[in-house]
Amino acid sequence: MKVRHLYRKGLVLLLLALILVGCRGTEPSAPQTTQEAEPPAGLYSQELLLQAFQTGGCSACHVIPGVPGAVGTIGPDLSEIGRVARTRLESGEYRGSARTVEEYLREAIQQPDAFIVPQCPTGPCTPGVMPATLAQALSREELNAIVSYLASLPEGALSAEGASLSTETPSASVPADEGPTLTPEEFAWAKQTYFERCAGCHGTLRKGATGPALTPDKTVPKGTAGLAAIIFNGTPRGMPDWGKQGILSQEQTEIMAKFLQNEPPAPPEFSLVQMKESWQLIVPLEQRPTAPQTARNWQNYFVVTLRDAGKVAIIDGDTKEIVSEVESGYAVHITRMSATGRYAYVIGRDGRLALIDLWMEKPQVVARVQTCYDARSVEVSKYEGPEGNFRDKYAIAGCYWPPHFVILDGLTLEPLKIVSTRSYTVDTGEYHPEPRVAAIVASHFHPEWIVNVKETGLIWLVNYADLKNLIIKQIEASKFLHDGGMDATHRYFLVAANQSNQIGIVDLQTDTLVSIVDVGKVPHPGRGANWSDPEFGPVWSTPHLGEGSVMSIGTDPQGHPEHAWKVVRTTSLPGSGSLFIKTHPKSKWIWVDMALNSDPVLARTICVIAKADPSRTYKCWEIGTYGRAVHLEYNQDGTEVWVSLWGAADKPGETGEIVIYDDATLEEKARIKGLITPTGKFNVYNTVNDIY
Ligand code: DHE
After folding, report:
1. Whether the predicted model's global pTM rises above the 0.90 cut
2. Is 239 in the active site?
């Protein structure tokens, strides 16, 4: 008689023996020890088994067949744990005191560090990840049920067609409205922290994008312990290890885990009227300089995000001196330049937009406005041609919450027009209440912005020639659009649909979709890198968050039609977690980071690939002894590469610096020290001219 048949009846007799589990719990009940005599196997219902896995939070860290949502990658895959445990016991590799598979599994749950298996999905398994308190969260019956079930694997695995345990609707037995309770203080803290740390990837309404959805139907089955484990330890697909980094305590990860099991609180809307009320014209046009007041080469300025200081530093690329430090928005994100290069537009995650005049002797903010509560992108109007001259005329800010974009006067930031991006997804046509605005790029072919609407997967071409009769063309691409840039001719725009593992390509001359290309796991190009491959001709490259590779796509349909819009080359990197890649037309190298790799050494390592031999990396090295190496930018003449060493604002001596390399020799030239969490750096000339 097959075990799964017994499950269907709700009662099962398991006879098998058991291995290592990685479940965790926090709320103590009766402590259990290996000394206690336990029944060898149990009679238990599927409801009890489901409850047991949920209480232990096992699915957050492990793959467990038949258990809904158990696809965790922090601990070992338990698909065949019964058999694996038996082999381990027989091989002599095991060093604990268990004699049977069941004892082995029981020990793994009650004393997780008694025996550490060598390999976890992300690298070597380490002690202390699976808490010893797990067993305290489980009743004796629950523990027995887990042990018995795991011991039966793989033969005893529940089938997909089996009982509710193996369905895709895990919330069936746990109603979504039964989230754990929090005190008002805990709730307020979690709400704010979620906005600051989590909403960027998971969405304000928690419907998911760069990170998975965190609605109660998904989170309740994982349980407080399981969610807290993920928040604490991170995941190999790019979720930061908030606990291990020391940013959240164990207690705080548990409060956040409870918050996530409740319905997300509805955030407020933000109207054009509110925007206008927030608008400050600090230096009117007539009081601004009519010619550069500085003798410095302002076109070689770098505007550097000092993320956690809420500031940008304006650094002279020639002398490496900090010319000015300017207050901008909270957790400042990116800067773009006006078409003439004179103005810098800095957007903070809080939606505050600052306009900086780089012609001033000491650049300062000349206008401010709040565009929304949560923003990531800003761009300017760059078009000059038969359809008019729009250089420096408009700016556009793209928001995560509310999901909209705003068109503003380019010289004063007066808000002119607001457009919601709420609509229907490209694949199934479902209504999405929070389609966030990701990258925005200005076309050189038409008076248009390319506005990438993340969750719906639509690329909107917004024609700004007539704001009163706004024309928007919607191009069907792929869901989870995030970041991207142009090819070397600026005719084509390539954007990562990150969780779809695809790159969407648009022809900006004809305003049509060219292709959607499959790439590796979670592409993250920044704006990408354009260069000429010795074998395949002009290509645009992206690295990935989810795998250690750079993929290059042919971009020359005229000269190399056989390679156009195909991945023609994959270059391996030593690790995943890449955020940015960069090159320059004059350079013989392609530079790439691995900033979000969970190994601290790789996180501060950068690699270069030689354009002459792109089959492998030429050289990789650590740029410092702490922090993460992130984002690369060339100086105006393409002879230097600036890399940020992203430290921690509260660690004196390790807050961050910029390391400058000679691009010809790859030798270090200079360090600009004592910066607070430098991340993105935007060279005026290269940003204006889309050189990357
Ligand atoms: Fe970014 C670009 C969104 C986290 C540094 N980032 C972008 C873009 C988007 C985006 C949509 C493209 C803007 C454009 O071209 O118009 N970023 C997000 C997020 O949603 C995410 C994943 C999570 C969040 O909560 O914000 C996120 N980003 C980060 C960081 O943690 C980084 C590394 C550090 C920081 O300063 O915040 C970071 N993002 C950057 C940088 C760019 C960027 C430096 C511009 C790259 C370029 O060369 O153009």
Report:
1. no
2. yes
